[in-house]
Backbone:
């Protein structure tokens, strides 16, 4: 089994265990009081969505972004939620049915293998893409599928610049119960995401949030 396959299987098992209580525990992620909802709103605003637009939510989990996206695209819009884990998608389906959304569809797929619909107006990923070893490929393939003027936005965690090794290890130990971050600090995937988005997208912007512990990267084609 390759390292990527092992990481994939680890992610599936991790989120299968967490799926039923994910909505509750995510409120504590990465630490209690973290302004996760306001950051999600900011990421959705960065997409510049209009009523009737189509958007793909990559690694959508239980669908925590769906209400914000519904507010932006309206009932005439379309939302596609993609996730690797069946148990997380089951929770997302419950959310869809509870809210009576008829314009949300779900796809179980590895983000690196997902066949993005062509001509979509936006792609979003929140608190997930840095855990995908092939995040660069996901961004490039998504950018190729966007309609002219379409937007890509990634909201995720990072280590602040200049963080001492001991403090970085402490931070990762705190987050470890909520996410799969093995080798995350060594891989520094936020740097990969920033570089690829700069290459693939125009009007690229990079904002560091919460004292450099998170970032919002966005751009258009």
Residues:
């Amino acid at each position: 089994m390759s390292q990527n396959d092992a990481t994939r299987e680890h992610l599936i098992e991790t989120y299968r265990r967490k799926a039923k209580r994910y909505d509750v525990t995510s409120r504590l992620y990465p630490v209690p009081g973290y302004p996760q909802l306001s950051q999600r709103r900011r990421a959705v605003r960065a997409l510049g969505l209009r009523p009737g637009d189509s958007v793909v939510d990559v690694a959508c989990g239980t669908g925590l972004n769906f209400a914000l996206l519904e507010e932006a695209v309206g009932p005439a819009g379309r939302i596609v939620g993609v996730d690797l884990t069946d148990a997380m998608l089951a929770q997302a389906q419950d959310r869809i049915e509870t809210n009576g959304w008829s314009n949300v569809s779900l796809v179980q797929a590895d983000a690196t293998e997902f066949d993005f619909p062509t001509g979509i107006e936006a792609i979003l990923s929140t608190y997930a893409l840095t855990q995908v070893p092939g995040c660069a490929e996901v961004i490039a393939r998504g950018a190729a599928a966007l309609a002219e003027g379409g937007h890509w936005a990634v909201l995720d965690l990072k280590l602040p610049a200049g963080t001492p090794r001991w403090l970085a290890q402490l931070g990762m130990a705190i987050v470890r119960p909520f996410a799969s971050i093995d080798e995350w600090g060594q891989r520094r995937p936020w740097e990969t995401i920033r570089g690829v988005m700069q290459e693939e997208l125009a009007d690229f912007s990079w904002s560091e949030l919460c004292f450099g512990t998170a970032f919002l990267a966005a751009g258009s084609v």
The chain has a mean pLDDT of 86. The chain has one domain: 3-220. The CA atoms of residues 35 and 210 lie 8 Å apart. The first strand starts at residue 54 and ends at 58.
